[in-house]
Amino acid sequence: MRKALLILSFVFVILSIVFSILPFDTLALLPIGVALILIFITFKKSDTNQRKLVKWLFALTYICAIFVLGKTYLIKDEVEKDQQFEQQKIETKQEAKKELEDLEKDLEGLE
Amino acid sequence: MKKATFIIATLLIFCSFKADTKVVIPSGEKLVYAGSYNMSGLMTQLAQVTMSTETQNTSKNTYLHLNCELATFSKWDKFFKIRDIYEAYVNPTTLKPSLYKRSVDEGGYTKKEKYVFKGNSVTSTSKKRNNPETIRTFNIGASTLDVVSLLYKVRTIDFSKMKSGQTKSFTIVFDEKEIPVTLKYMGTESVSAGNLGQKECYKLSIGAKTNKLKGTDKNLIWLTADAKKVPALMKFSIPVGTGQLALTSATGI
Questions:
Q1: Partner of B37 for a Cys bridge, out of A99, B31, B194, B243, CB 3.0 to 4.6 A?
Q2: Which residues of B190-214 are buried (b: 16+ CB within 10 A; e: fewer)?
């Protein structure tokens, strides 16, 4: 039982690290939460001399949680200046002006 | 993945009630929203939505250009980049559309649409990915609008005389067809409105006869209960999840 819990804890700690590094924002708190619960249960099921690895797993998960919360609250979300998108907007606007003038001609022809 | 399309469509569908034409949408207005999506129970900020207005002159007429852009935050760009533009060219006073354009680029999925309004008919031009361009002409009702102009039109309505639970029906054109939209006024609530601070807002619920919206009274919009009627918060429920657009900055109002 303890071994299975330890393996699961290990898996979720790995997932926590991966999710924390990738831009999953607060979504990373899900594996972190599960990892913490599993680590807590594993800790309770472990004898005093078996707790060293569990403590390390807890430390790693704790760092992940701090890292994710730090990213969430301290780093401002920004949209990258996209030259291609800006160019597309200019072109769309120019096209629209021409299309509106064509529409005006059509409507004038109908009258 | 059409989540972003659903989000934008939902955002744009929020609208209408009979317009008070005395209220004019100003040119040069810019509203910026933080778009969040509910991922496994957690609201995650995904994109920035910018709604702006600008005057567009041709040799004969003056139009109001209503522009709505959606762009993913840079941290998501490497995984799923979205750059969408929804825009309408409307009469500055009545907000009746002459031209509606939609350009979608969502993680490689591209779609371009153009609707030209000529009286009671619309000529639509649509192009998806590498498929050939399709052109259709279909008739619409006299009061049918596109989703962008409808979103702005809702802000010209006098809600102060409406009673909670009162509903109205409207029609919009989306995906080359007319869609009936029902709106329900749900009273007032205090909502955070970005740089405008905490604001008393009109709460509205939207229902549309489309599979793009889910649930009853789960698609909501809060408009500031003042002359500007700025959309402060929008919550949506679509087949692939729920999310919200929260106002972060309002300028030129």
A1: B243
A2: ebebbebeebebbbbbbbbebebbb
Domain count, chain B: 1
Instruction: Give the number of other CB atoms < 10 A from CB of residue A53.
Output: 13
Q: What is the tens place of the pLDDT at every residue in A31-57?
A: 999 999 999 999 998 888 888 899 999
Contact between B54 and B63 (Cβ < 8 Å) = no
Please give the ipTM for the structure prediction. 0.78
Where are chain A's structural domains? 2-78, 79-111
Find, among A22, A31, A105, the residue nearest to A71 by Cα. A22
Considering only CB atoms, which chain B residues are within 8 Å of A96? Answer: 56, 65, 87, 89, 99, 101
How confident is the model over B203-231, as pLDDT tens digits? 999 887 776 666 677 789 999 998 889 99
Range of the domain at B120: 3-251
Of B73, B89, B118, the CB nearest to A79: B73
